[in-house]
Amino acid sequence: MTLFENASNLDYEGWLRGLLSAGISGGASAITGGMVVTGMDPEHYNFQAAKFYIMVGALFGASFIVSVAKFLQGSPLPPVKTVVTTTLQKVTQADDASPAAVTTVTRVQETHTEPINKADSEVK
Fold this sequence. Notes:
2 domains, alpha+beta, 4 helices, two-stranded antiparallel ribbon, elongated
């Protein structure tokens, strides 16, 4: 297998979604920080002052970067796409001694990697 064949088995969509959500949730804390600073110093940092929006933007950027870095520490590369297939097998047996049927249900799970279908990933 070549490097590019292995790259097609990675879950980029989930990884990018996690990366973006980490940044947004980290940056959202800037709103709370802005409210606290406004409460502590309303003369200089109120909703009409440009300094307030500069400060909230800087807080958003710093929190975004820290949260994205923390996400990348735990997941530096996209994980391999895994598919779990669960199959239920239902077997019903009846014999002459007991007219009531006995049902046995067996759950079989299979986990494997599966290449991403290039036709599904193209924008239509």
